[in-house]
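tool_call: predict_structure(chain=1)
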Amino acid sequence: GAWWGQVFGWDALTSLTVAGLSVPDLPLGTAVIPTYPRHPLALAAQALTVQATLGDRLTLGVGPSHAPLIEGAFGLPFDRPAHHTREYLEALVPLLRGEAVDVRGELVRAAGQLTVAGAEPPRVLLAALGPAMLRVAGELTDGTIVTWAGPRVLAEHVVPRLTSAAEAAGRPAPRVVLSLPVAVTGDEGGARAWVAER
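tool_result:
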């Protein structure tokens, strides 16, 4: 499949829709869309529209992002990201299933219901690496999207915590998507230095 990130520039869901119309049967996903700047009702409506347009090929990857982006660029408080994410998903996931929600949390409020004819609920993955976020991912989503991690971190930390949380919540085995930096370059040393800095 093909995955789109979302920071600035091209909108991930719009871009993958355009690509998906040209390449049938290609699984598509976002890795990831930040939750703080997009209300769950707005994101659910857009994701379901993409699903209906592309024949249910979307995996919706979301995550709280990071304080420098959320506070610095968007001017929003980056308070208690795991708590925010739990409340956000308690609204988003049922909305994607066409259910009415009335979430009145400490950090997220959403009341409404969406109907998009011809759209199945997309699979939802949560960007998670720490214990609290992996617990939220296991309890409320279909799995996680991890970046900047290798096989040992996945085997010893991510998969056991995520799987345990999913099992405790009575959910099926979670999916793990690993995002790795790849550089096609004639300057291997420069590419390695860039990765090492980050």
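agent: The longest strand covers residues 58-63. Proceeding to next step.
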